[in-house]
Each structure stands twice: as C-alpha cells, then as structure tokens.
Design a protein that fits this description.
279 residues; Rossmann fold; 10 strands
Length: 279
C-alpha cells in the first residue's frame, strides 16, 4: 500500500482516504464522495477495511462485528473507490502475539470524556491504528463522519499535534428517514429494538427544542431531567450517558446554550449505539 501511494505521489496524484471497519452503508458512500470531491477526478480514493482489535475492550463485540467483504467491494466499485486496503491483524500488529508491540499513540485531552470515559482503552486503539493507516496510505485528505464526533475531534487533535501533512474533513451524519444515524451496528437490532433506537435522535431533538426556548441557557442537570420523559417513552433503551460539551474543546458544560453540542449513547439490548448533535 505504501509503495503504491508513493508511486501515485510521484505521478502528482492527490490521495483521499476513508478509513472504515467495513460492513459499508450509505454513510460510508457519502464519505467516499467527499474524498473524491477533495482530490478531483484525477486523484486517487482509498478506502480501508480493518476491524481494529485494539479499540475493542474484552467484553465488546469484536468477534461478532458485522463483516461482508464481498458486499463491501461491490459498494466500493459502485462508489468509484480506486483502491481498497484490507490489511490483516498480522500486517498491522506483526509482533503483538509475542508481546513486542509497545508503541501507542495517546491523545490526553479531547479523548477523556464521553466515549473515552465509557470505554477507557478505546481511543488509544483508534489513534494508534489511524496513525499507522496514515503512514501506509499517505493521504493528502482523510474523511471521517460526524456521527463519531469525538473520534473525529481526537483525530483532528492528533493530526495537529503530530504535524501530519493531512487535511481532515468531518462529514455530516447520514440518517434513516426516522432520524436514526446510519451505523454498521444497526444490523444487530431486531424489529422491536430497531423501533426504539430512534430514542437517541429524539433526545437530541428534544434537547435542541428546550435549549432554543431558554434565553440564558439551562443547567445541564436540569436539561437531563427535562429529557427523562423522552427516555421513558422507549423502555427497551437503556441510556448510557447524555453529555453536553463545547464543540471546539469537547470540555463538558454545566450550562447549555445554543451552539453547545450534545452526545448520547444507549444500549438497545446488547447493542450500543451513539449519536450527537448541535443544539
């Protein structure tokens, strides 16, 4: 992959990169379109498919994470991807089984709350593998989805702090007609849980309405209490957290005003979904 990327660069081709864990959907296709727009018809778009074991905790869904490589390849061809990069674990972490992999990339500020608090080892795995992918694909532009807003913020900080010569684009969340954010994990949901998964977007919409009506803002704890009736309408959903934060710094807010951002995570049975939105 690196040799191919270097050859493209010598030819003067710009490289756009979309890192994924596969089981692609329309949200991923929208990222490919962003990458193509950024590098132009003469550029190269690379999409990686790698289910990164280092971002899963021991009790999470690594072994059952959805995979369908043939379907993914068909979608990539239809979307105009130039190259699919699908490394194996032994390619990305060649000495891990011998305990010889000892270098990690760790962001220590914007990764601390929300997903970082709920999944303490998650972002260390994300930043390490994305740094590896950047060094292999050598992109000029990398595109991430806003559904994983904190992840995108962590990558932006890593790129800034470590001087990666890469432009990072954060693309808007693609949703189903009922507001559920597209996610590969949505396939886990049975009919009953799928119907109640809209709770994430409903909570964001209700918070947006409450904040819009408040003149001087509203205390975060009071806003969480105001959202309780929405939670109670969806008894199959178990909310993991509701957080309000500054979208630039990701610092938690005690008073929420228009322009603040909200993140929510919830379990639907064994499936954990996340969403976020500007208030």
């Amino acid at each position: 992959m690196q040799a191919l990327a270097l050859a493209w660069r010598r030819e003067g081709s710009r490289i756009g990169f979309v890192p994924t864990m596969g089981y692609l959907h329309a949200g991923h296709v929208s990222l490919v379109k962003k990458a193509r727009a950024a590098v132009g018809s003469g550029g190269k778009v690379v999409l990686s498919i790698y289910v990164n074991p280092t971002q899963f905790a021991a009790n999470e869904d690594l072994s059952r994470y959805p995979r369908d490589f043939g379907r993914d390849l068909r979608m990539c061809r239809e979307a105009g991807v130039d190259e699919v990069f699908a490394p194996r674990d032994r390619d990305m972490f060649p000495d891990a089984n011998q305990g010889d992999h000892s270098t990690w990339v760790v962001e220590q500020q914007v990764s601390m709350g929300m997903e970082g608090a709920a999944r303490p080892t998650h972002f260390r795995g994300v930043t390490t593998v994305v740094a590896k992918l950047f060094n292999l694909v050598l992109p000029d532009v990398a595109v991430f989805g806003a559904k994983d807003f904190q992840q995108a913020a962590v990558i932006l900080r890593m790129v800034r702090d470590l001087h990666f010569p890469i432009r990072v684009i954060v693309s808007r969340t693609v949703r189903e007609s009922d507001g559920l954010a597209l996610s590969s994990r949505n396939r886990y949901l049975d009919t009953a849980h799928r119907a109640q998964a809209v709770v994430l977007n409903r909570l964001i919409c209700q918070a947006r309405e409450v904040v819009r009506k408040s003149r001087a803002g509203i205390f975060a704890d009071k806003l969480r209490r105001a959202l309780k009736p929405v939670e109670e309408r969806y008894p199959l959903a178990r909310v993991d957290y509701i957080d309000f934060f500054n979208p630039s710094t990701l610092q938690p807010l005690t008073r929420v005003k228009p322009g603040s951002r909200m993140a929510v995570a919830a379990f639907l049975g064994d499936t954990r979904l996340i969403d976020n939105g500007l208030l």
